[in-house]
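Quick one, tokens below:
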């Protein structure tokens, strides 16, 4: 018991992580995976393995990636027993000690499709999403728990005050669904805010009909001054006077859907050619 308490304190201090203690919530998160079109599941930050054991009951091969060495030791000590209990082979479960943000997913999974899941540390959850987007060719599905306001931001549509860079860049490649809210009482230590579970399913066509780097730059530049009209916030693109008169440049970034941002990027690319 003393060992588990020290791990949760250290996780809160260094990793920004709160360990889930509610078995029903853990099962609901595991069940959010569709298991369609992939054989591998990667859990980020498994901690004491409360979610891991429900993932092991499913068909895919499960890999967990954990930065904390004490958690890795605990997982190694605990889950060989789970293999016997669940009558699964050792090939189904793999523990990697390391930082997800520094790992090469293509090398780790040999370019096979892998779904990502986890109770994500609040302080790096946005970075985890962006890395999944960068590796979208290999990540058909992404499901997990975030700070509620971050989960809402990712899932939100245009017209909302919280619709922003993460919303557009995620929804350009994935269909996002907000699944359910989780209260602080089911964590140790309890956070000061609610959490939210979302699921991302990669679009059938996840390529952009515009230059990707330009699209990312347009979105980020527009939202850096989100209260301004686009003709003002996008000044750095050296827009022609004619293009500035296009009605779209009288809009603010939160008014534009993903498709409108694609159209905007096309207009800027043509103007600069």
């Amino acid at each position: 018991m003393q060992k588990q308490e020290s791990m949760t304190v250290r996780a809160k201090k260094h990793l920004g992580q709160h360990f889930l203690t509610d078995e029903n919530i853990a099962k609901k998160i595991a069940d959010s995976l569709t298991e369609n079109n992939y054989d591998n599941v990667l859990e980020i930050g498994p901690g004491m393995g409360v979610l891991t054991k429900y993932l092991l009951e499913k068909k895919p091969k499960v890999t967990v990636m954990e930065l904390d060495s004490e958690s890795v030791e605990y997982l190694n000590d605990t889950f060989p027993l789970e293999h016997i209990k669940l009558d699964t082979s050792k090939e189904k479960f793999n523990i990697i000690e390391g930082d997800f943000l520094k790992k090469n997913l293509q090398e780790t999974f040999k370019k096979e499709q892998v779904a990502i899941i986890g109770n994500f540390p609040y302080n790096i959850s946005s970075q985890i999403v962006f890395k999944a987007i960068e590796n979208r060719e290999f990540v058909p599905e992404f499901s997990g728990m975030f700070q509620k306001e971050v989960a809402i931001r990712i899932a939100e549509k245009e017209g909302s005050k919280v619709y922003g860079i993460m919303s557009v860049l995620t929804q350009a490649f994935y269909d996002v669904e907000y699944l359910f809210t989780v209260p602080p009482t089911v964590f140790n230590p309890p956070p000061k805010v609610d959490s939210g579970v979302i699921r991302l399913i990669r679009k059938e066509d996840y390529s952009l009909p515009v230059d990707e780097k330009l699209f990312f730059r347009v979105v980020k530049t527009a939202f850096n001054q989100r209260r301004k009209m686009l003709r003002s916030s996008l000044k750095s693109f050296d827009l022609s006077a004619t293009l500035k008169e296009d009605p779209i440049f009288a809009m603010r970034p939160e008014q534009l859907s993903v498709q409108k941002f694609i159209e905007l990027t096309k207009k800027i690319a043509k103007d600069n050619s």
